[in-house]
C-alpha cells in the first residue's frame, strides 16, 4: 500500500532575537534584509551600521542617533546607513550637542536629511557618509538653539 499523505517537514528552529533586534523593536524600527525593498518609514537595511555604532559608542548613542531621525519632522524615512553613521560621527565629535536633549531634536526638525543625502550622493565619488557628515555639522552649527545649550 502506498501512503499518499504529504510529508511533514520539520519546523525551522526558532532563534531568539539578538540584542540589536530587541533594541530596534524598542525604538519602533524593523531591520530587514537588503534583498527586500523598504516599504515603510520604520524599516531599514542598516544592520551593519547600527552594529558599528554600538561597538564604537554604545547603545545609548545609537538610541540618540535614531531619535534624531525618527522623532523629527520630515526625516522619518531617512534610516539609511550613511545617514545613521554621519549623524553618529557628528554627535561623537560634539558630545555637548549629543547631550542637548530636546534642543537637539528641535535642531533636527530644521534639517532636511533627505535633501542633504541627495546632495551628498550627487557629489560622488566622495563618500556619501563623509560628505553628509559635513553638511549635517554645518546645519547644526547654524542652529542657534543647539549652540545655546552647548555653551
What is the molecular shape?
Answer: globular
Spatial order of strands in the largest sheet: 1-2
State the assembly state of the protein chains.
Answer: single chain
Overall mean pLDDT stands at 88
How many DSSP-defined strands? 2
User: Sheet bearing the most strands, described?
Assistant: 2 strands, parallel
Radius of gyration: 20 Å
How much of the sequence is in beta strands? under 5%
Q: Report the span from N to C terminus.
A: 86 Å
Computed structural class: mainly alpha
Provide the number of structural domains: 1
What level of helicity do the residues show? Answer: 55-70%
- Indicate the low-confidence ranges by residue numbers: none
The succession of helices and strands, N to C, reads HEEHHHHHHHH
Protein name: Transposase
In short:
This is Transposase. Helix content is 59%, strand content 3%.
Based on the model shown, name its key terms:
151 residues, mainly alpha, two-stranded parallel sheet, 3% strand, globular, Transposase
